[in-house]
Design a protein that fits this description.
The chain is 48% helix and 18% strand. The chain is an alpha+beta fold and 82 residues long.
Length: 82
Amino acid sequence: MIDEALVRELLDATDDDSALVLVEGRARVAGRDALDSDDLRGAAVVLTRAELVDRLGTAHPAPQELTLVAASLNDAVGKLGG
């Protein structure tokens, strides 16, 4: 569900309020304005770009760090349902 490409997409977003969200069982990156749209109404915010940068300690992490974050987030999201 959450892979390195999604984490990279969030990190590459230009707005710190952009977020990785879950909507209808799928993960995607959305800007703050999009979170108020009908398409994303009820979406669960997993992590914002600002939180990701804080977690990584840098806006320019090594690829393996993105892989580790993606695995951690995927594990946490997988545990939400049960």
